[in-house]
Amino acid sequence: MILRMLVPAFVSFIGLSWFIASVLLPKAPLGDPNGPMYYPLILSGFLFVMGVIYFIQELKVRHQEKGILKKLFAGRTPKLIIAALILSILYTLTFEKLGFLVSTIIFLGLLLFVINGFRGWKKWVTNIAVAVLFSFVLWYGFSQLLGIGLP
C-alpha cells in the first residue's frame, strides 16, 4: 500500500537533503578546499541511491502485500516473537546483576534453544557452544582488545 512507499521516499528525501547540505559546506582554509564535503557527499549519494532502489523494489512487489501479514502470523512465528521479547526483557533486568558475560551466555543459550529446539544432543552442544563462544568473543573483544569495561 501507500504506507510502504513512504519509507523509501523518506530515505531518498533525506539522502537528497544531505547531499545538498554537503555541497553547501564551507570550503576548507587549508589543504583541499573541498575536503570536508567528500565523505558526506559519498554517504548522502549512497543513501539517495539506496532509497531510489528500495522505492523501485516496493513498486514491483506492492501487489504481494496481502499475504505477507498472514505468513508472518502463521505457524510458530508469533510464539518466537513473544519468546524473544520476554527473553530480551529478562536479559535487560539481569544484565547489571549477573554481568555481561554470564547474562549474555544465558540469554543467547535460551534464545537458541527456543529457536532450534531441545531435541537431540547435537542441538544442545551447538546451542551451548555458540552461546558461550559468541559471548566470550564479544567480551574479549570489548574488554581486553578495546579496553571498554563491561559490567
Automatic annotation (TrEMBL):
Any Pfam family from its record, for instance, is TctB
Which InterPro entries did the record assign? DUF1468 (IPR009936)
Give the residue spans that cross the bilayer.
7-25, 37-56, 77-94, 100-118, 125-142
Q: Which keywords annotate this record?
A: Membrane, Transmembrane, Transmembrane helix
Domain of life, per lineage: Bacteria
Q: DUF1468 domain spans which residues?
A: 14-151
Designated name of the protein: Putative tricarboxylic transport membrane protein
